[in-house]
Amino acid sequence: MIALSALLVLVLGFAVQHFWSGRTQPVKAPEMVRAAVPHGEQAAERNSLPGTPAGAGRTGASAAPEIVVDVSGKVRDPGIHRLPAGSRVEDALRAAGGVRPGTKTDALNRARFLIDGEQLVVGGPTPAGAPPAAAPGTAATGPPTPVSLNTATLDQLDALPGVGPVLARHIVDHRTRNGGFRSVDELRDVNGIGDRRFADLRNLVRP
Predict the structure, then answer these.
(1) b or e along 109-143 (b: 16 or more beta carbons within 10 Å of the residue's beta carbon)?
(2) Mean pLDDT per 10-residue section of the chain, whose length is 207 residues
(3) Which pLDDT value is given to residue 107?
């Protein structure tokens, strides 16, 4: 009986051990490992975080190009103004504080692009001896508008009195070579324009 009891205890011990080792155990999920981010992307990510100053991590960024124009005449703040490249006449008027009340701006093309070094005269008097309305650059029912030496096409210059295709090409070449006209007087430097022709053109053109 003693031997049988010992055998039963031994069998029961093996059964308990087998049951205990086969029980269900909780499994811990593996930790997530973040993929390595390239150095350039890390810098971009830092720049996108709130509170990061704009431009941090960017070096050697070039400033936007700008032009310098001289706005004179009947504006609130005449003088030299710096504007972004590609600005128009309307932008220059706004930079100069706006046009003074009562000033006529019919002769101004507010949508025209500006060029570096240009002088913009607002509300100036109508040039003396200006040609009739049929002249180049003139509206059919309004006062004559001078042709811009810096933006006019070959056809527009060719249409001026005393200017043919050859002289129009000389004006464009001079404009390209010298970076534009800063004043009407520089028209004297163009090959083929003498004193008499300059006198005929001075009131029909502007820089």
Answers:
(1) eeebebbeebbbbbbeeeeeeebeeebbbbeeeee
(2) 80 72 60 48 49 46 74 90 91 92 84 87 57 39 69 89 89 90 91 88 89
(3) 79
What pLDDT, on a 0 to 100 scale, did the predictor assign at position 15? Answer: 72
What are the extents of the domains in the chain?
63-123, 133-207
Other beta carbons less than 10 A from residue 74's beta carbon: 17
pLDDT of 130 reads: 38
DSSP 114: P
CA–CA separation, 147 and 206 (whole Å): 6
Q: What are the angstrom distances between the C-alpha of 123 and each of 71, 126, 144, 205?
A: 11, 9, 14, 16
CATH ID of 63-123, from 3.50.50.60, 3.90.550.10, 3.40.50.150, 3.10.20.600: 3.10.20.600
* Superfamily name and number for 133-207: Photosystem II 12 kDa extrinsic protein (1.10.150.320)
